[in-house]
């Protein structure tokens, strides 16, 4: 069946609109969605299914935006025959839908008043403004909850953070508890760059709070970005303070922040202690040093000789140093087994975290030398 000229023009216009919409959605995927604490993790679905199907006059796209530890879902319905018209939209929060008016939409979502379908960031602008409108709606609802309002203002004043650092959802019913997501003002500016350069992303520590009752009883959950996790360990390994009845939220958040800052300080101290330890090994062993980690100062290899017996010393310092003693392994240069060169870990070397690096290395040296005779005898007896 042949298409008329008008049908061909209409199909061409729809194809152009479809490709244009795809570019706008790809822009959101590529650049993220600003305006929320975790909005860059927004999930877009329905793009491929709708855009590859020819013959359809509309496209529905679903955007799931993380907000205050929950999800704010936006449903957009684009009419491809009328690309100059804004899409119809609805939201997962039906209370929000029923509460807003057309006038409020025009005042808060300005892009609707000047819809330019050729702009690549058009959908991103729409989603950003809708998200800000939703956030303002939740802050307005906050005024009717005295307990939540007090906690919110106390967090802003005590932590010296802004509205952009806290997201809040005020409960619509008993089945949906109120929640907050708080961006903690954790700084890594004093951390040696080598400890965080492997994860160049954002420095983010989020504390999610779910309120279990109107009296302010809450359950906390910590979320750390890969950059922070790589430095201090994952949030699943970090024991959060308990929440006994009557706990003040602001005091609790301050304790969590202090816990994280303490972890960061320990990482910095451990780095400096490892650096000093390696420097002392270089001083005391001199030419015996074969190689060492000059970035993170986590290991050093020595080649020593005692009574014509040559061997290697592998010294490893983990992230818990100096709370954790160095791991020292001796390796023979002469004797092998099926697994490789014969080696033995040296245990019971005198060590105390309060010693300075000079004494640590001196005691390690004495401990190793006291074990060399037994190591040589064992390697000769079993691997000759």
Automatic annotation (TrEMBL):
One of its GO terms (biological process) is apoptotic process. InterPro entries: BRE (IPR010358). GO terms for molecular function: polyubiquitin modification-dependent protein binding. It is found in: Cytoplasm; Nucleus. The keyword rRNA-binding does not apply. Keywords: Apoptosis, Cell cycle, Cell division, Chromatin regulator, Cytoplasm, DNA damage, DNA repair, Mitosis, Nucleus, Repeat, Ubl conjugation pathway. GO terms for cellular component: BRCA1-A complex; BRISC complex; cytoplasm. Component of the ARISC complex. Component of the BRCA1-A complex. Component of the BRISC complex. Binds polyubiquitin. Belongs to the BABAM2 family. May play a role in homeostasis or cellular differentiation in cells of neural, epithelial and germline origins. May also act as a death receptor-associated anti-apoptotic protein, which inhibits the mitochondrial apoptotic pathway. Contains 2 ubiquitin-conjugating enzyme family-like (UEV-like) regions. These regions lack the critical Cys residues required for ubiquitination but retain the ability to bind ubiquitin. PANTHER family: BRISC AND BRCA1-A COMPLEX MEMBER 2. This is BRISC and BRCA1-A complex member 2. It comes from Halocaridina rubra.
């Amino acid at each position: 069946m042949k298409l008329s000229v008008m049908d061909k023009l209409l199909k061409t216009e729809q194809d152009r609109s479809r490709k244009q919409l795809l570019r706008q959605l790809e822009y959101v995927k590529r650049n993220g969605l600003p305006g929320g604490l975790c909005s860059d993790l927004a999930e877009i679905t329905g793009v491929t299914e709708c855009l590859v199907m020819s013959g359809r006059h509309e496209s529905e796209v679903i955007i799931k935006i993380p907000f205050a530890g929950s999800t704010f879902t936006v449903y957009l319905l684009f009419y491809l025959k009328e690309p100059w018209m804004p899409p119809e939209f609805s939201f997962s929060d039906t209370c929000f839908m029923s509460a807003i008016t057309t006038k409020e939409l025009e005042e808060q979502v300005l892009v609707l008043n000047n819809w330019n379908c050729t702009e690549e960031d058009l959908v991103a602008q729409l989603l950003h403004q809708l998200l800000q409108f939703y956030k303002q709606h939740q802050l307005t609802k906050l005024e009717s909850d005295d307990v939540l309002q007090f906690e919110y203002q106390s967090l802003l004043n005590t932590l010296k953070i802004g509205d952009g650092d806290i997201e809040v959802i005020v409960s619509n019913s008993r089945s949906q508890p109120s929640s907050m997501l708080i961006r903690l003002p954790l700084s890594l500016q004093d951390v040696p760059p080598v400890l965080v350069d492997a994860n160049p992303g954002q420095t983010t520590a989020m504390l999610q709070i779910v309120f279990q009752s109107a009296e302010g009883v809450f359950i906390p959950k910590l979320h750390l970005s890969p950059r922070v996790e790589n430095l201090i360990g994952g949030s699943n390994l970090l024991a959060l303070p308990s929440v006994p009845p009557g706990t003040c939220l602001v005091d609790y958040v301050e304790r969590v922040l202090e816990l994280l800052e303490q972890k960061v300080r320990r990482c910095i101290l451990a780095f400096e202690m490892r650096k000093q330890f390696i420097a002392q090994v270089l001083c005391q062993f001199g030419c015996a040093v074969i190689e060492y980690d000059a970035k993170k100062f986590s290991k050093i290899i020595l080649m020593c000789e005692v009574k014509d017996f040559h061997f290697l010393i592998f010294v490893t310092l983990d992230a818990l140093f100096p709370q954790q003693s160095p791991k020292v392994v001796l390796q023979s240069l002469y004797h092998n087994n099926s697994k490789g060169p014969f080696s033995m870990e040296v245990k019971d070397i005198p060590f105390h975290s309060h010693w300075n690096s000079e004494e640590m290395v001196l005691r390690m040296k004495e401990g190793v030398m006291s074990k060399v005779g037994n190591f040589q005898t064992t390697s000769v007896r079993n691997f000759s």
